[in-house]
């Protein structure tokens, strides 16, 4: 049995490799299965699934949705989505609209700060997929307004910075609901970005999310400490949640991060996919 990576981005959102490229890259690295989990979009899935069939790599149709949360950020993963599902398509269309309204406002803000940047340049950086803040960061870097990608976020793009413009987010409950409606398994992504205060706050949040239909927790993630992993495992076991893991690879080797292995420490067995499949089958039989 081989290894898997259940959190990956492509050019359909803010990744650098196209869906077919990421599938071929995963294959070349010897992985047995991957999930494509682009932010707020399923546009890359058809291509990814097709390439997977062609070269015999299991590709799980997934997504990553940003949900309303403060002070940190909450992301929800959905696995085994029915990508034809009308409600899912409608909800994601709504997010695309919110994004399309926000992006030109970021351009305006940056222009007012004296930065010469056009929306066309940002579109070009996005490679034709969905446009997000990382593409603004790329353009700022390319035009030498900042010295690093990270600096672009720190000085201009992160929440509270002068180029930041808020965008609509669904609540966690709403996001889990439409993932479930599309027959997907909803999983809380990288809980360490929630910025919660200790185990019991996370436990309370998870209990609330479980009531809304949450089925899993992303335990294994490059930025999780050993203590994080231990806590998330405990929570998963206590509440019968499926454990997943992934690198969040965007196609850029950020600080040596690579698909499948993260920074060398990750080894995610195929049994993780089997766990997700069991959960999905339960979900489907409950719906009947
Ligand atoms: P958007 O969905 O367009 O608002 O962009 C969000 C994406 O920007 C996230 O998924 C991250 O990939 C990236 N991002 C957000 N905040 C930061 C940050 N402080 N530093 C680096 N990247 C960030
Ligand atoms: Zn991203
Ligand atoms: Fe995320
Ligand atoms: Fe991600």
Structure overview:
The chain is 45% helix and 13% strand. With 288 residues, the chain is of the alpha/beta class. The chain has a 7-stranded mixed sheet. The site of one fe (iii) ion (FE) has 4 residues, from loops.
Quote the average pLDDT. Answer: 96
- The structural class is alpha/beta
Q: Helical residue percent? A: 40-55%
Are there runs of 5+ residues with pLDDT below 50, and where?
none
CA distance, first residue to last residue: 32 Å
Give a brief description.
The protein is α/β, with parallel strands linked by helices. It is built from 10 helices and 7 strands.
Features:
single chain; alpha/beta; seven-stranded mixed sheet; 10 helices; 7 strands; binds adenosine monophosphate; binds zinc ion
Q: What is the element layout, followed by pairings?
A:
Blueprint: E1 4-8, H1 19-28, E2 33-36, H2 45-55, E3 58-67, E4 74-79, H3 86-112, H4 119-126, H5 133-142, H6 149-157, H7 172-181, E5 185-188, H8 198-212, E6 216-220, H9 226-239, E7 242-245, H10 271-287
Parallel strand pairs: 1-2, 2-3, 5-6, 6-7
Antiparallel strand pairs: 3-4, 4-5
The structure holds adenosine monophosphate, zinc ion and fe (iii) ion (2 copies).
